[in-house]
Design a protein that fits this description.
The complex is a heterodimer of chains A (315) and B (283).
Chain A: H1 2-29, H2 34-39, H3 45-54, H4 61-73, H5 87-122, H6 127-140, H7 144-158, H8 183-209, H9 212-219, H10 224-261, H11 267-277, H12 280-308
Helix pairs in contact in A: 1-12, 5-6, 5-8, 5-10, 5-12, 6-8, 7-8, 7-10, 8-10, 9-10, 10-11, 10-12, 11-12
Chain B: H1 3-11, H2 15-37, H3 69-104, H4 106-120, H5 124-134, H6 139-166, H7 169-176, H8 181-217, H9 229-236, H10 245-269, H11 274-277
Helix pairs in contact in B: 1-10, 2-3, 2-10, 3-4, 3-6, 3-8, 4-6, 5-6, 6-8, 7-8, 8-9, 8-10, 9-10
The chains are: A mainly alpha (315), B mainly alpha (283).
Membrane topology (chain A): Multi-pass membrane protein
InterPro entries (chain A): BPD_transp_1_N, MetI-like, MetI-like_sf
Pfam families (chain A): BPD_transp_1, BPD_transp_1_N
Chain lengths: 315, 283
């Protein structure tokens, strides 16, 4: 296990380096000169020349990359053109919303996805299964922003149960009650992902149900419910647990659309707004942070998976 | 099995998938004949009749410029087909070629597949956003961006499937009979991959619609003047409380089309070579 972990960590490093190079190149691929883009239309030639020197843009590209990487490793992601503050603090400001949203979404995914998936698998082939499987596919076919808009229309505008937009921090007035701002967004984000989990729980339970140990359990006269929960579900859970991890890793970037619909001050909306504002240092920083998070979480899930399932070969 | 025979046998006995297929045919017809069927010019402004309720002569009502929603929806079908087919072609051509070549030429494969791994470190929507930042908003660029995003998964899948086929006896036989690399790849291996590719194509088509709609909604997809279902939703969202039907029609059209494509993809998948079944996953 230790050797496997070390090996996986070692293979992560070149991928991370390559991904960081891509993120770095991103600003240089933008048509036009970064210094004049950053300064805007009103800048004079001298100002542009000065910023070019300050940013080290007159150096060879590979030198610039290593200077940038060195800064990144020291936690310096540059300065936002729009906010005039360090990029890292701009990202940190959105972290609370994004993390809470992702956690709440995961709660819905588990609460909705697992029971319906189990039901679907135990009723395999019956009408209940057909309705839930079809329903799951339908849910995954809905554009998230459309669902979000109609949830606002029904539950905020119509019934007035939940606020329609924004999210004050939990440390502001209201405290934990502020979580009600995240109910509709988290449900919106959960819908397509819960659909995936339903299909996955169903598929992995049906896979396990075909195995010999399940047949033995049935043959020795165990109650069907007992077989379904202790023998099938528990084994199917390994694959499902891994899917939870991957889903969580993807939520931060999937939240881009949902955060925009509900005007949440999270990292996802920051990405879109920075793109619209052409705030390149922030775009670069956010993408780097999301990609690193995504890769690290995926690695952790893989490691956890290998530990949970003794049949996984570590080679 | 030929591609033409694939569809009837996949749809046999599957009512819902058959309805889905018929819906897609309808969308295709609307796309082709939008210019003939549409009762109004999709761009024609009529400020007097803005936000009209569904009825006659405006079947789906009018938007905040007084444009006919039904006619715009018909032209939107055209965009749906163009974006879907375009993304599928870009993804399958680039991703498919990378996957097949990587599996066949092992040394090249090490290099290329590491590149694919790096691209896959970027979540799909994020990668689309990054690419769109570098390009201008246009139909072609939207297709390229979505195509590239799904080229990575396609490359992975085709890599796996080509590796499986590479060790088959019929490939050895082709090598022994002196066939060239090109002939082995495209005349012996590729024909075996056509039906799984068709399944992958249907899932990419479905995903592409959702991604394109999301990009439109964020204001980073098709140019705003293009009548697409995503743009219709994006433009009319502030009128949700005053004219809720304006968002209902384009939304339902997207949902029905994506759902249908997923159903058809699922039906096709159940009919392909069992060796490849687990390689491709849709929703």
């Amino acid at each position: 296990m230790l050797a496997y972990t070390a090996k996986r960590l070692l293979t992560l490093i070149p991928t991370l380096l390559a991904a960081s190079a891509l993120v770095f190149l991103f600003v240089h691929l933008i048509p036009g000169d970064p210094a004049s883009i950053l300064l805007g239309d009103t800048a004079t030639a001298e100002e542009v020349a000065q910023l070019t020197r300050e940013m080290g843009l007159d150096q060879p590209l590979w030198v610039q990359y290593f200077v940038w990487l060195g800064n990144v490793l020291q936690g310096d992601l540059g300065t936002s053109v729009f906010f005039k503050t360090p990029v890292l603090s701009v990202i940190a400001a959105g972290a609370e919303t994004s993390i809470l949203l992702a956690c709440m979404t995961m709660v819905w995914i588990v609460l909705i996805g697992v029971p319906i998936g189990v039901l679907s698998a135990t009723m395999h082939g019956k009408w209940v299964d057909q309705v839930t499987s079809g329903g799951a596919m339908l849910a995954a076919s809905i554009p998230t922003f459309w669902l979000g808009l109609y949830l606002i229309f029904i539950f905020s505008v119509g019934l007035g149960w939940f606020p329609s937009s924004g999210f004050p921090s939990l440390s502001d007035d209201g405290g934990l009650a502020n979580l009600r701002y995240l109910v509709l967004p988290s449900l919106t984000l959960a819908a397509p992902n819960a659909a995936l989990i339903i299909r996955l729980v169903r598929a992995s339970m049906l896979d396990v149900a075909r195995e010999d140990h399940v047949r033995t359990a049935r043959a020795k006269g165990l109650h069907p419910a007992n077989v379904a929960i202790k023998h099938v579900f528990r084994n199917a859970l390994i694959a499902v647990a891994a899917a939870f991890g991957f889903t969580f890793a993807a939520l931060i970037s999937e939240a881009v659309v949902t955060e925009t619909v509900f005007s949440l001050p999270g990292i996802g909306r920051l990405v879109v707004q920075s793109i619209l504002r052409r705030d390149y240092p922030v775009i670069q920083g956010v993408i780097l942070v999301i990609v690193v998070l995504y890769m690290v979480i995926n690695l952790l899930v893989d490691l956890a998976y290998a530990r949970l399932d003794p049949r996984v070969s570590l080679k | 099995m030929s591609v033409l025979k694939l569809m009837p046998s996949a749809l046999a006995g599957r009512k819902l998938a058959t309805i889905g297929f018929l819906w897609l045919v309808l969308v295709l017809l609307a796309a082709v004949f939008a210019g003939v069927i549409a009762p109004f010019d999709p761009l024609e402004l009529d400020p007097v009749n803005r936000l009209a309720e569904p009825g006659w002569p405006h079947l789906f009502g009018t938007d905040h410029f007084g444009r006919d929603t039904f006619s715009r929806a018909l032209y939107g079908a055209r965009m749906t087909v163009i974006i879907g087919v375009g993304s599928v072609v870009v993804a399958l051509l680039s991703g498919g070629l990378i996957g097949m070549l990587s599996a066949y030429f092992t040394k090249l494969g090490h290099f290329l597949m590491r590149g694919v791994d790096v691209l896959m470190a970027f979540p799909a929507l994020l990668m689309a956003l990054v690419l769109i930042t570098l390009l201008e908003r246009s139909v072609a660029n939207t297709i390229i961006v979505i195509g590239i995003v799904y080229a990575t998964t396609t490359a992975r899948i085709l890599y796996g499937m080509t590796l499986k086929l590479k060790n088959e006896v019929f490939v050895d036989a082709a090598v022994c009979s002196g066939a060239s690399h090109r002939s082995i790849l495209f005349r012996h291996i590729l024909p075996n991959l056509i039906s799984p590719l068709l399944v992958q194509a249907s899932f990419i088509f479905a995903f592409a619609q959702l991604q394109a709609a999301a990009l439109d909604f964020l204001g980073l997809g098709l140019p705003p003047e293009v009548p697409s279902w995503g743009n219709m939703l994006s433009e009319e969202r502030i009128y949700l409380t005053r004219a809720p039907w304006l968002l209902l029609y384009p939304g339902l059209l997207i949902i029905l089309s994506v759902f249908s494509m997923n159903l058809v993809g699922d039906a096709l998948r159940d009919n392909i070579d069992p060796r490849f079944k687990d390689d491709i996953s849709g929703v």
